[in-house]
Specification:
single chain, 464 residues, alpha+beta, 22 strands, elongated, disordered N terminus
């Protein structure tokens, strides 16, 4: 018996006959079926679809007015249910800050069929459903399974609306308590939020869940198997503390680091407030993640009045110990997270001051030198004005832009002349070759002899 035949056996309203405490509805094509089962104060919802990608259910009459959505799919053999927040439009709803849906085993009273390629059951509090009459629903399905909660393809299967009297159906029903596949340690009743922020490449995600009045559970995941870290602050130079996590012989390690006010590797902190924790079984892991580590932090690390500024980085090389951590070779950038609302923003790449430094140095050394050469070679016919233009572009503008670029980095990471190859070569150019070039240019002007028989060395050096 396929789903099509199953639907034809339903009532004219496409309502499946009740079996014990289970009842449901199917669409006319037989592609999607929704079943409901009472379980104490919860309702177990079972979604079935002939499409193997994803299947979703929303509470409302349309995408525009639905108050919540629930999208289910299979990831690496495990069933995933993702609660989504209303957007007031037809765009893909974003992951909600609250996740009330819990994946559970499909009740034995639910009629299932082998033609259904995707079957997923989850529990919801009965308060989600109307207590006085039918609850309005929308549904949709797709053939492409999401790669992660932020990348759900648009539905390419049946989608429509229906209504069903969930609560009144089970007003006198009794059922066994729910059997959940979630093995997460029960949290305090004042748990307020759980959400994630991922970088644009999908290589790093950080999730946050307020688990008590004083604790936040942080879960970091990365497609880089070496280490992944987050810091509290807007940059390496301003961060108050860092937390670097890796796996050492099957044991998760989280090392708290003290700020160094620069881009050197932060040293081990005397305070170690991070406590490693088991990652919740309900956690939605990305298929590409090779490193997933959870730890708790005091809630005092997060701002109570608005978003908390954070930075992140990851690396492919695992540390040999706390004092030998390789420089990040993966995505790095900044993010902000508000534990009171679950809102997050992510900015990939280097901090803004590094970008500004690059722009200034490109203008100083990638544009202006060629302009000064052009002036000296082709504009001498305009008289002494060529020299004034040459001096302004080559002497004043290049020096000013270079000084500004150096000042940005000095403020951002501290003044230094050694470290990486970039810093060493930059120091040679800025503090050695640039002053030599300026001095040779001044000498070429002041010591110029129209009756000279050879080009002096300072002129030759200036040309290079």
């Amino acid at each position: 018996m396929n789903l099509r035949a199953f639907v034809l056996a339903c009532t004219a309203a496409y309502v499946v006959d009740a079996i014990s405490t289970t009842d449901g509805w199917c669409d006319v094509s037989g592609s999607v079926c929704v079943s409901f089962a009472a379980s104490n104060n919860d309702v177990t919802v079972t979604l079935q679809s002939t499409f193997s990608g994803w299947v979703g259910l929303g509470l409302g009459t349309s995408m525009n007015d639905a108050k919540a959505y629930f999208i289910g799919w299979k990831s690496n053999g495990s069933l995933v249910i993702s609660q989504r927040a209303a957007t007031g439009d037809t765009f893909m709803p974003a992951v909600a800050k609250t996740q009330d849906a819990t994946v559970t085993t499909t009740p034995s009273t639910v009629k299932t069929d082998t033609s259904a390629n995707l079957i997923i059951s989850f529990t919801l509090p009965m308060t989600y459903f109307s207590a006085s009459g039918p609850t309005a629903f929308i549904f949709a399905t797709g053939s492409t399974a999401p790669t992660d909660p932020s990348k759900v393809a648009y539905h390419d299967g049946p989608h429509s609306a229906f209504s069903y009297s969930v609560v009144t159906k089970f007003a006198t029903a009794t059922g066994s308590s729910k059997t959940s596949t979630t093995s997460m340690t029960p949290q305090s009743s004042n748990q307020t939020s759980s959400n994630a922020a991922c970088d644009g490449s999908g290589s790093v995600c950080a999730s946050f869940a307020v688990t008590s009045a004083n604790t936040v559970l942080v879960t970091v995941q990365s497609s880089y198997a070496g280490w992944v870290g987050i810091g509290f602050g807007s940059s390496m130079s301003s961060a108050s503390s860092f937390f670097i996590a890796w796996n050492d012989n099957q044991q998760n390690v989280v090392s708290q680091r003290a700020a160094t006010h620069g881009e050197y590797m932060p040293v081990v902190s005397t305070a170690q407030d991070a406590v490693t924790s088991a990652t919740p079984a309900s956690f939605i892991a990305k298929a590409s993640s090779t490193l997933i580590i959870s730890f708790t932090l005091p809630i005092s690390y997060f701002s109570s009045t608005g978003p908390t500024s954070l930075i992140y980085a990851t690396c492919s090389t695992s540390p040999t110990d706390q004092n030998n951590i390789a420089y990040h070779d993966g995505p790095h950038g900044s993010l902000s997270y508000d534990i009171s609302t679950g809102a997050s923003t992510v900015a990939m790449g280097p901090p803004q001051f590094v970008i500004n430094h690059g722009i200034l140095m490109f203008l100083a050394w990638g544009v202006l030198p060629y302009a000064t050469i052009f002036i000296a070679r082709y504009l001498k016919g305009i008289g002494h004005a060529w020299f004034i233009l040459h001096a302004i572009a080559g002497g004043i503008a290049i020096c000013a832009l270079t000084a500004a670029g150096v000042a940005l980095m000095a403020v951002g990471i501290g003044f230094k002349v050694n470290g990486s190859v970039h810093v060493v070569l930059g120091s040679i150019v800025v503090y050695g070759l640039l002053p030599l070039q300026v001095l040779c240019g001044i000498a070429s002007d002041r010591l110029f002899d129209p009756n000279r028989e050879a080009v002096p060395w300072w002129d030759q050096v200036s040309r290079f």
